[in-house]
Amino acid sequence: MRARQSRPSVARTYSYILGGRDNYGADKDLGDSFKEDLPGSEQLAITNRAAVIRAVRTVAKAGVRQVIDMGCGLPAEPNVHEVLRQYHPDATIVYLDNDPFVAPHGRALLAVDNNIAMLEADAREPQKIFDEPEVQRLIDFDQPVALLFSAVLSFVEDDEDPAGVVRFWTDRVAPGSYVYISHFRPGETREAAATERKILEAFGGRFRSSADILAFFDGLELLDEGLLPCRQWHPEAGMPTTEEKELTSWEELIVAAIARKA
């Protein structure tokens, strides 16, 4: 455990930037270095989290009652199940994360009833996840499911076949299912390049082009305006428009899209 504490993790650093308290010194140090060395870069985490919550509202309004949250990270208010259950009190949710620190914390805070599960699992092993008894118990694959890939594919290397991970699930979910993906994309400014370098040095992974990210949706029907920076994606009432507030260099680095299986 001590070795894990000495290295920052994606989930714990992300949580720290969002105001969470379940983290270690290494996570705080890295989070603080983003805030102090690259002020404004914390918007990557903030706008990404806000977009995934809007995605949950979108699928809930479409009638989806089942969600698998790949790489969910540590609990953050509001949580996915809380948003989904505003529309469907009987909704079922499976949270997944490969960080061994996340699973026990998540079980304590998220698994509040028998229709919610928190599993220690790696998104790069979809067959193993699919075969999990809790997944089979909670998810009816003959009914629409929402799959959330919130930034997680950014940490899947090309040789680990991120497109194959998405395709595994889209081949198995029912028509009417939704796939939401947010992903890091390279920027053009010096600040953007420094942020990309810091993230990749700490966690590995890939920032991918818009074309590469859109390829994950092959065979699905893209909704809204396709791929957009998270702050601009699926805007709701009260959100600032681009005319009112220009995107920062950092906000352009995290993009999102949602698609439906016909």
Provide a quick synopsis of the model:
With 262 residues, the chain is α/β, with parallel strands linked by helices. Helices cover 37% and strands 15% of the residues.
Could you give the order of the helices and strands?
Answer: HHHHEHEHEHHEHEHHEEE
Q: Major sheet: size, sense and barrel closure?
A: 8 strands, mixed
What is the average of the pLDDT values?
88
Q: Could you give me the name of the CATH homologous superfamily?
A: Vaccinia Virus protein VP39
CATH class (first level) name = Alpha Beta
How far the N terminus sits from the C terminus, by CA atoms, comes to 45 Å
Summed up, the helix count is 11
Helical amount? 25-40%
CATH architecture: 3-Layer(aba) Sandwich
Category by helix and strand content: alpha/beta
Describe the structure.
With 262 residues, this protein is of the alpha/beta class. The chain has helices at residues 2-6, 10-17, 25-37, 43-61, 80-84, 102-109, 126-130, 133-138, 162-170, 190-203, 210-215, and strands at residues 66-70, 92-97, 116-120, 146-150, 178-184, 221-222, 228-229, 254-260. It has one domain (1-261): Rossmann fold. Strands 1, 2, 3, 4, 5, 6, 7 and 8 form an 8-stranded mixed β-sheet that branches. Strand 1, helix 5 and strand 2 form a beta-alpha-beta unit. Helix 2 (10-17) crosses helix 3. The radius of gyration is 17 Å and the shape is globular. 45% of the residues are buried. The mean pLDDT is 88.
